[in-house]
Amino acid sequence: MDTTIKIQVYIFLTSLYGGLIAGLFYDIYRINRYYFKPKNIATIVEDFIFWIGVALIFFYILNKSDWVELRAYVFIGFFMGGIIYLKILSKVLFPFLIKLLNKITTVIKKIINFIILPFKYINKKASPKLRRLKRNKGMFKEAIGEIKRRTSIIFKKK
Q1: Which of 6, 13, 74, 114 has its CA 20 to 30 A from that of 130?
Q2: Is 96 a member of any domain?
């Protein structure tokens, strides 16, 4: 094979690879939307960030492979990579990532509950005493307020 054809095949394969990476980036974006369910403005901002990320991936791959020479096969490779990812790999990877993140969040919640457990116990034991203390503190403040009110009434009389 001629060296220019080898280079063009290499560029095509790297653009195909870039499409696969963009597809993975899209799955990460879908997972983010699956868990956080953003509202209208947040969706617009996330879409903007997604497309900037895809453009950065595209131009980084182009810069590393063919010094940003735009050819038709570069776009074809990029779109083919994205379609291959979405039609084949995403069907396997997306549910796997969802299950993995569900398990990770379950483990994190259990760790947090384990860490918080002693504080819940202390709060449960101390809360009746704290309520009594707050009630006594409130009665003390009320008594001071009554004393101030009555002394001001007494001193205003002539």
Answers
A1: 114
A2: yes
For residue 157, what pLDDT is reported?
65
Encode burial over 22-47: b for 16+ CB neighbours within 10 A, e otherwise.
Answer: bbbbbbebeeeeeeeeeeeeeeeeee
In a domain, 58, yes or no: yes
Distance CA 146, CA 137 (A): 14
pTM value surpassing 0.90: no
Task: Please give the residue range of the domain that contains residue 56.
Answer: 3-127
Residue for token pair 């195909």: 16
Q: List pLDDT tens digits, range 75-118.
A: 999 999 999 999 999 999 999 999 999 999 999 999 999 998 88
CA–CA separation, 123 and 158 (whole Å)? 53
